[in-house]
User: Fold this.
Amino acid sequence: MQIVNGFSKFSRSEKLNWLNRETNLSQQTLEILDTHLHREEAIQEVYGDLSENTVSNYYLPLGLAPNFLINGDLMTLPMVIEESSVVAAASHSAKFWALHGGFHTNVLGTSKVGQVHFTWSGDPETLQAIFNQNMVLLLNSVTPMTRKMEKRGGGITSMEIHSAHPELPRHYHLFVRFKTADAMGANFINSVLESLASQLSQMLENDVSEGRLEIIMSILSNYTPESLVQCYVEAKTEVFRNMSPELSADQFARKFQQAADIATHDPYRAVTHNKGIFNGMDALILATGNDFRAVEACGHAYASRNGSYSSLSRVDVSEGSFRFSLEVPLSVGTVGGLTGVHPMARASLEILGNPSAELLMQITAAAGLANNFSAIRSLITTGIQQGHMKMHLGNMLRQLKASKEETRRATRYFANRTLSYSDLSAYLDSIRNQNQQE
Ligand code: MEV
Assistant:
């Protein structure tokens, strides 16, 4: 392959011709790229413009998980995910908990953070004094940018100078807290920070006798531990009486707690445990056009806040009562960004009743806790593979190019057997051989 110049200026067909020359794509792949374009040009343009160098679309299924009872309201959750068992797991869990009080959620805060990183060659106390004298001026300088957000209940809520780290002498940052109402607010925060940075350097460059200030960068932080939501389910342990033929209700609750406790202390288990939480949360974040990379990065940092990686959820069992809770930072929006542009994100928000950002935080946490509950329930009873492989059967049958009749027979055959790819492949071979001999 050769270095290509001006690729972004090529038309779609020029891009594909170039790709074809360089990689010798099969005709089938070229056709797939074509058939996955949206049939309506205007809509395709919307999808194409979400990114750069677009040549096709990449579909993921949007599924529905009904029966989510959240703070007394029944909801259906739109979930975008490629893993076959996630929507089913969310739905099972939602239905179970809808019959036992539902999910209870609570937003603990919605503060976002931005930083202007800079160096200052002078005395730290002088820097602090200059900052204190000029703080109001600095804030006033960005009012044209914050006015609209303030009308919506947002804006800057605090601004401080922090020294960066003992390993980084003379490095500081302006630590700015924001509220961004129903927007995720990344663009708003970054624009305000860049303006604050330029005001700050202008203020200090007039008088260099005290020291020199150099701006390094201005950027929001995706770590938002003060944009925090809690979600829990609770019930008497007797509600678990039918969870497993091998476990009594109390045994189930105790084993569930043991599984959760392991994730509290063992990072190897905690990562997988939290992955199960993000199965549910990411699916909703994606469906609603939010930034799953930001949500994931923040959640995992929060899971490490006490010095070692731990689980985001906790279980308490005492005196016959079971409480399963999740606390997770979430920075999401329901206006602006992709939420207003992507047709499926708009549809998902409508399915949810056009929630506020705070409500979306709560719904997302409920999806996370629901999936976490289903995963642990399977792990401590049947094992994860039984349900997983059953859900995956369709994908494997497609991969093995099974006909309708073969699919029907294989589904029946594996209904009560443990499924693996090699067993399925051997089974299909056997019925194909049988057919040839007949
Ligand atoms: C699979 O996507 C997620 C699980 O591994 C989560 C867990 O182990 O808790 C089942």
Q: What stands out?
A: The two ends are 51 Å apart (CA to CA). Residues 63-108+225-384 form a domain with the 3-hydroxy-3-methylglutaryl-coenzyme A Reductase; Chain A, domain 2 fold (CATH 3.90.770.10).
